[in-house]
Amino acid sequence: MNGRNGNILEVRDLRTYFQTEDGTVKAVDGVDFELKRGETLGIVGESGSGKSVTNLSIIRLIPDPPGKIVSGEIIFDGQDILLLKTEEVRKIRGKRIAMIFQDPMTSLNPFMRISRQLMELTELHLGYTRDQAYEHAIKMLETVGIPDARSRVDSYPHEFSGGMRQRVMIAMALSCEPELLIADEPTTALDVTIQAQILELIKSLKQETGTSVILITHDLGVVAGMTDHIIVMYAGKVFEQARTRELFATPGNPYTKGLLRSVPDPTSEQGALYQIPGLPPDVAHLPPGCPFAERCERAEDICRREFPPFVALTPDHHSLCHFAEEVYSTSKREREARAGARSQEQVLDLE
Amino acid sequence: MFGFILRRLIVTIPMVIIVVSLTWGLIRLAPGNFYTGEKKIPPAIEKNLREKYGLDKPWYVQYGKMVWNIVRLDFGTSLKYEGQSVNSILARTLPVSATLGFLAYLLALFVGVTAGTIAALKQNSRLDYSSMALAMLGISLPNFVLGPILVLIFSLTLYWLPPTRWGGFPSLNLILPVITLSAVYMAYIARLTRSGMLEVLRADYIRTARAKGLSEKAVVLRHALRGGLMPVVSYTGPALAFLIAGTVVVERIFVYPGLGTYFLNACLNRDEPLIIGIVAFISISVLIFNLLVDIAYGFIDPRIRY
Lengths: 351, 306
Ligand SMILES: Nc1ncnc2c1ncn2[C@@H]1O[C@H](COP(=O)(O)OP(=O)(O)O)[C@@H](O)[C@H]1O
Ligand code: SF4
Ligand SMILES: [Mg+2]
Fold this sequence. Notes:
The structure holds two protein chains of two kinds.
Chain A: E1 7-20, E2 23-36, E3 40-44, H1 51-58, E4 67-76, E5 79-80, H2 86-92, E6 97-100, H3 104-107, H4 114-125, H5 130-143, H6 149-152, H7 162-174, E7 180-184, H8 192-209, E8 212-217, H9 220-223, E9 229-234, E10 237-243, H10 244-249, H11 254-261, H12 301-305, E11 310-314, E12 317-320, H13 324-350
Parallel strand pairs in A: 3-8, 3-9, 6-7, 7-8
Antiparallel strand pairs in A: 1-2, 1-4, 4-5, 9-10, 10-12, 11-12
Chain B: H1 2-29, H2 43-52, H3 59-72, H4 86-121, H5 126-140, H6 143-157, H7 175-201, H8 204-211, H9 216-228, H10 230-253, H11 259-269, H12 272-300
Helix pairs in contact in B: 1-3, 1-12, 4-5, 4-7, 4-10, 4-12, 5-7, 6-7, 6-10, 7-9, 7-10, 8-9, 10-11, 10-12, 11-12
Bound molecules: adenosine-5'-diphosphate (ADP), iron/sulfur cluster and magnesium ion.
Iron/sulfur cluster binds at residues 253-255, 290, 292-293, 296, 298-299, 303, 308, 321-323 of chain A.
């Protein structure tokens, strides 16, 4: 049973709003994307741009009240999840779609042994007996690289370090061999050295199992070597989407360019990083024009008046901007200049 | 763990002595004496009485004897209930008060936790608002008002339940006193449970549990309840102390031959050995109970180690 055109997931015009004292927070407002079976999608954006809400919407874990999925379709393997009964969604959660959350320190139950927290899944979804589930838990811990898994499986979460706990979360998520793994900022709360290890682990497990992955992060540097596609989110909207290589090489949106400039460059020594000026807007009170206008270097009057169009730069590359074409061609010129400089250097080196 | 318990038990001794010394001082500060009753007593008899009970000795001798009694856990003889040792009075009255207090706390725990959990799960619903309004009423209505109201309704109007008197365990006589005593705790525990559960239900690990596909029942009972009840567990220590204060009033209303009634009488009669004995006994129980709660805490929360 393959989904339409090989897509494991298609999200269409998703809108998730929160009713707060401050008004309606349009956390996710018209998001579209798709994910091919076996591929990895990166969702990037500053904090508060609606990445987590998008993904919690996919497995219908938005706290209601105050949240509500107001409209849209979430087609998972040909089925619209938004039309399913709660019990049917429960059979998908943890079994076919699994999640890893940002903070491994708080995402595991502190009162429960690791073994129990792992066994719970296979007992529920795969009908394992206690013994089978226990052995499977040990096997999963070994898979994610926890040394001495057998003797540590009965520990409590506080006996593990942050990196180890995130490994446990990954073991848990992969217990039932899900078709889709959603990792919501899986490394944000971890030390830099551990971050790389965890990303490497996700990458290799993905290659072994062929799971489709959604990797959420606020740091474009994290997704570079991991994803096939990227969508860039801002204020609940998709600002740009493209294949990873294309997005890095020739971004078509000023916001993406800003994010790219703030990625730490490992080859340069300078410590001071670029930061997009200002703060993300309050999504409860958005101005009529482009939500990025206040902070955008390229902004003109029209940006403050009119909401920008979603421009198709290539069939596979879209950007939400009044000047998408122009930004895109500037990026192309810059890339050529860089390439030129590099070949120049090579020539100089030879001389 | 063992060292922790031992340390705590050792600290108990000076704490009890401090509490009892304060009580002893307060009794001395108040004017009058246990024999200053209705009639005037001739000086010769007064002198005899003072000699008999050691009141003619210097204060430090009397104080020393009192402390020694506590250390021996033998509190001497009552002045008013002649020929009865304080220990025998404690042994007789304790079962009555303990039954009352224990049942009241059990009822409070059961109703409070259930109501609080449901209120938290249905936050801001009509059920939530009405149970919390009821809890507010329970907290603000004093037991000396609630008791007589219940008696008026269920005994004197409906004739369903006996109005007063101890009838042993189990008996219908227990129902009204237990409800009267437990109302405040029921209400308080309901509120504690509600806020504790609300906090836990927002926790990341509850979201993880939901993301696993667990049923709502499993999420609440298996994952949330334990953390959500921590405030209730820590409240159990102080609750015991308040329960004891409550029994004084409730036993009075329902004419129960319990510790509370005897304590009140002892105070009115200035029955010093009995007052000291009961105060010492209660302080020891409160301290030990608090210790038990701390030990239980360590069992419930694996992060706590002593
Ligand atoms: N439970 C909630 N109640 C109200 N607002 C919420 C809630 N959860 C998220 N939001 C709002 O939705 C917006 C997007 O949040 P989120 O998806 O968590 O951002 P991020 O991109 O950092 O993951 C934010 O403005 C946030 O304040
Ligand atoms: S529409 Fe205007 S403000 Fe928005 S990103 Fe494009 S240039 Fe900037
Ligand atoms: Mg987030």
